[in-house]
Amino acid sequence: MRLNNSKLIIIIGCGRLGSELALKLSKAYNVVVLDKEESSFERLSKRNFTGFTRVIDTSDMAALKDVNIEKAHMVYIVTPDDNLNFMLAYGIKKLNSGVRIAARVNDPLKKSIFIKAGLNLFCPIEDSVMDLVEELEKEVVKYE
Amino acid sequence: MRLNNSKLIIIIGCGRLGSELALKLSKAYNVVVLDKEESSFERLSKRNFTGFTRVIDTSDMAALKDVNIEKAHMVYIVTPDDNLNFMLAYGIKKLNSGVRIAARVNDPLKKSIFIKAGLNLFCPIEDSVMDLVEELEKEVVKYE
C-alpha cells in the first residue's frame, strides 16, 4: 500500500469491520470515520489510528455533505443495519455520482434489492461461505 | 461440489452464516445443524435445506457426543459468541483429534488466543478488510 494522502476515504460505521478497515487504510490514506456513537471510536483510540473521527447522525444527508462526502475518492458503508446501508448508498450516489462506493449487505437475502438499485456491494457472509466450502473441499492434512 | 453423502458435516450455530453454509453444503453432503434456539432454523425451513437440524445446548459437551460429533468429517463452529466458539473448538478437538474444525472468530483482537491454542480458525472481518482494501487499490472504472 503506497502512501496517498491526497485521497479522501470515508468510512461510515465504526464497528468491528469499520474500525479494522480504518486502522488499515489510515496508514496510507486520508481517512475519516463516521459513527453515530462516540463510544464506537474506542476501537480506534486504543490502537494506532492516524485518521479522523466524527460523530454524526448517519441517516442525515445534510450532515454527510458537511463531511465533504462530495470530495471523497471512496466511501465504505459498513454499519450493521442493511436498511441504513441501502439508503446511504443510494443517497450518496445521488449526491456524488463519481465517488466509488462499497456498501455492506449483512443479509444475503437482501442482496438482490441492492443489485436492482445498481449499487456496488459486498456481502461478507457469502464470501465467508465460499471460503468455508473451499476449506472442506481441499483435502488438506487432517486437523491435529 | 460432488455428491458425497458419506461425509458428515456438523455446523454449530444457525445464524446468517451458519444457515447459508448449511444450505450450500446440504446439496452435496450429509449436514447436521445445531442451535440452541428452535426459531433459528426458520432460515432453513423456508428454503431448500435437505439436511437435519437439532436444538441442543451447545455449551454441553455431553450433548455434542450425542450428535455423533466423533464421527463428523468436519465441524464448522460459527456462533456469534467468540468465547463459546473457542470453548467448543477446544473441547471438540479433545473429543476427536481427527476431525477437521473451522472456528469463527468475530473479534480480530481475540485471534491470537485461538492461534496460541493451536485451533484452526477463520476471521470473517479480517478477510473482508483485505477484500475491501483491494477494492480501493484496483483502479477500476469509476462507480457510475
Automatic annotation (TrEMBL), chains A, B:
<feature type="domain" description="RCK N-terminal">
    <location>
        <begin position="6"/>
        <end position="129"/>
    </location>
</feature>
<dbReference type="Pfam" id="PF02254">
    <property type="entry name" value="TrkA_N"/>
</dbReference>
<dbReference type="InterPro" id="IPR003148">
    <property type="entry name" value="RCK_N"/>
</dbReference>
<dbReference type="GO" id="GO:0006813">
    <property type="term" value="P:potassium ion transport"/>
</dbReference>
<dbReference type="InterPro" id="IPR050721">
    <property type="entry name" value="Trk_Ktr_HKT_K-transport"/>
</dbReference>
<dbReference type="InterPro" id="IPR036291">
    <property type="entry name" value="NAD(P)-bd_dom_sf"/>
</dbReference>
<protein>
    <submittedName>
        <fullName>TrkA-N domain protein</fullName>
    </submittedName>
</protein>
